[in-house]
């Protein structure tokens, strides 16, 4: 049964001794012990939201400004999915619960802080005379404390960051998932801790904490703690100890719990640079999708890449300029060597890293025109599956395979490497050349590779990367050209492969070939520009030349890395 605010005041926090109601609501002092930086426990937040802090919380948020800044984002997300019932699991002082009630949603308001619930109930009456249905609940036992199923669950206000252990985070998400109807949606937000951890704190002070003369700034940040200090006009100070959740880590947890589609917005915008937003909002759908429907699940970066490679200009550029067989970086004996010959040398070098027999099952992710697959199938007599997101490139791949008499050995499949449409342990070798950079969720790609790789199997790939020592500002022109927020790096791939249990056998650093290759492509484009003008539009050619020069400059400056990575399951 839901506890009323009176119940909370009478009985205090769950299972605890009874406390005086006035003391419960008005308690001013936060207690963090002798060393606040050691306070890294999921349960401690209930002691952080003391009465004095809760009373000032609305000054920090500023309901009017937040209403204006977020607009109808959450309301539109819910209504677009036909949502009627909503469980607000991080009610706080009630801003979103009141907003939902105003819009006609059947709303239940839950929170782990009795002080917050008391304030929310009072705010509901003040703002529109709403009587909130409040429930004192711990997310880890949500199904015990709250009954029923809901069309949507919202967990807003950077609240999920209060959970310090991965076990608690997984348990809470599992509880959310279980309480959603079969086609339900979870909306969960978080600070942009990636930017804070990697580049230091900055804030536009626009969307979430918009109160005048109120500051919310980090007092201490490390990979396991973000301790924020909140300062109010009367010079009072309060603190919150939170876990700094990285964006893709949260996305991974949501996927592993079972959510099928996860869209991530930055400050309510679908398109953003990773370091720009103050907050990320994840919209996770429970609704199960078949393999045929998975194309709707791909990240924004993958959709962008698909549209690009399907364009007539791109197809003609890669077919007529880049060589039309292998669309990747080549190994050059001389700077003016034929692109196709240099590209084939890369394929041969990669193949020499592993043992391949006619029985070897190979998957090429991001296979382009299928040049590597044809080389492997013809040379070793093995079967190769090509997975690629461009239908235009795949059509050329099929045509070339038929002309080479290799159709029986090569399967060409439309799809994304973020959701590989093959069974677990299906391949002895996963192969990829200069494709993974196009993903907005590279961790997801590596997880999928690991899933389909057999025990003892090999993963051999190349990818244009940021050098481990590169600064983000050095990569700006490259990222802009590719419509990307970030690039991988040798260190990133080593860490992620190790996390997934793959042993990195070798990284052959061939970074010096990267600017040579892009200079060669630029030279060919410029020398043949007049004859290609009818096939490749002027705007595309202009942007491509600018982009190629950026690759050359960044490569020569040492900001980029490239080479062959070999890992084994």
Automatic annotation (TrEMBL):
Provide the Methyltransferase domain boundaries: 86-184
What SUPFAM superfamilies has UniProt attached to this entry?
A: S-adenosyl-L-methionine-dependent methyltransferases
Which domain of life does the protein's organism represent? Answer: Bacteria
Disordered: where is this region? 1-23
Provide the alphabetized UniProt keywords.
Answer: Methyltransferase, S-adenosyl-L-methionine, Transferase
* PROSITE patterns the record matches: SAM_GNMT (PS51600)
Q: What is this protein called?
A: Glycine/sarcosine N-methyltransferase
What organism is the protein native to? Saccharopolyspora gregorii
Task: Tell me yes or no: is Heme among this UniProt entry's keywords.
Answer: no
Task: Give every Methyltransferase type domain span.
Answer: 363-461
Instruction: State where composition is biased (Basic and acidic residues).
Output: 1-17
